[in-house]
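A common beginner's mistake is to predict each chain separately and then try to dock the pieces by hand. The better habit, illustrated here, is to supply every component at once so that their relative placement is modeled jointly.
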Amino acid sequence: MNENKFKKRVFRLIVITKIIVFAVLLFCWNRRGFSTKELCASIAVIVPIFTTYIGFMMNDFLGDSPYISEEKDERQDRLIKRSYVMTTRVLIPFLAFIITFAIYQKVSGVWSFELMQSVIAGTEAALGGYIGKVIFSVFKKQE
Amino acid sequence: MNIYKLLLLLIIFFFPKSAFLQNIEFTIEDDNFFQSKIPRYEKWLESYGFNQLLKVHEIDTDYGDTSRVTLILKTNFVDADTSYSIWKEIKNQYDRKSPYDSLEIKLFKHFCNLMQIPFNHGVIEIYNNINQEEIPCFNRYLYYDDLKGFIVDSDNCMNIVKPVVIDNISVSNNRLISSVKIENPPSKKVTKAILEKEIKAYIKNYYVTKFNVEPDFLIPQRGKLVKYEIMHIKNEVLTDESNFLLAEWLNKCCSKNINWVANEFITTEIGFELEGNSLVIIVDMNGKYGFGVMKPRRSGYMDMEPEFEEYLETYVEKFAEQLKKALISDTNE
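With all components supplied together, the output reads:
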């Protein structure tokens, strides 16, 4: 898979999975699975890492200038390792699954809110490291 | 000047001033409204157990530019040491139980919500001695500053000499109490066994008719008559809750019967007292809510307070009145 295609796929995957997670959170809050304070606390756990990734990716997509440069065309030819492709394909949906599972456990009363929050924060931190490695190595760093 | 700067300046100059400043001027009618709410605030103090220390002295309304509503609370003890020690005990107990607000904020927020005024127009003053002539004294000033948020202040007079050992102070943070008085009930009615039987029959009939669910009757605390709990009911306390749009659409188009309205879990304890020729029925209620899509476990329910405090307050009063009517109509039969 070439670099640009991979980047777009990672971006899409992260945005879609996070939108699903936020939609589940909002739905559960709307149906009184969470109090408003709990919703805010949950979003506060998920948003920072998400915005870090998105910020990094948007910076790469938009670049410093709005004009198409020659350099960008050259980069399209680079190929991405299969291990990177597989890691993102598996880890990002897995992260979303764990978060959704934790939300489900909380609203059904099996887990307390604190446990749910710890599981989400722990998973974000653990898997976020791997996902971060992929993102930070592929997407351009800010100059 | 570029177009963005020009736009910004236009917004600043032409944006209505009223959108930034909330200017309120209270009237005599407002003051009457505030005064009428005093019994409700007292009842609320009682439901939490704060009445062990505090009672409402008066409400003072400032008209004109200052436009402030000041609630003056007085402690039940003129002695500053006792007042301070009980305050400390109540505060410790309440703050330990409440994950959201401190005791002072709870007192203040409920006052502003009840009076329907913005936080920056309300003040609570607490004194052990209204004349404030003696030292040591105990007082607290609670108010809201737009920049600093909630402020709790106390005068320099708080020179507590000796702490007083306090027993039997108990504070609740998640239940509401309402009481109804039945004047001159027939003497045969005022026996524990008959009251218990009639109240149980009413409760069972009420929930079975409305939800087709039987409440679980539990062993009440000493001195109480009936204790029951009922789970997984909908729209009982939270009457405004509506079904999810998708569920409603599925119900219409596919003749389904999906109800995703929040589940409710009510625990109630009912007691009675005799006051002269009157029978006072005391309803002590705790309401919880939970996820509406499935039936949550007991631990999945959350306290209705503080988010739905007003709903629970209205419900417990309505419930007590209905119970009174049912008991009176039984007497007449």
